[in-house]
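The protein record quoted in full:

***
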Amino acid sequence: MTLYQKVALFYFVALLGAASLNYIPGVTNDEGVAFGVFALDIFDDALHFFSAIWALVAALVSTHAAWLFLVIFGALYLADGLMGLAFGSGYLDFGIFTNGVVPLPFTFKIMANLPHIALGAGALIASLDWEKRE
């Protein structure tokens, strides 16, 4: 198994964990907010679940499929996180279309969008051809 495939498997586990947050007792409060920041709904759960399945399939199919997952997933999630940081809503969960621009405190926007920014940037960094750099 190549490094790209191992990283895609990591994304499978991380995204499956994100998809399950609403279903683990004690993670969300009475308002359905996880960690005091994330109000995950069924669209978010579906996005994370299908992204996890995509990562798993890519990891199991081939090195190229895993690399392609990292590039496309990384670009989509990084752009979504940066959009959420700028506008308070992202596009992957259709938030920018349903909620429009949301005037949230900047610190809150950082906390709410940091996971997508970190996952997206991490995937893009992992997609670099590290073997040529050694």
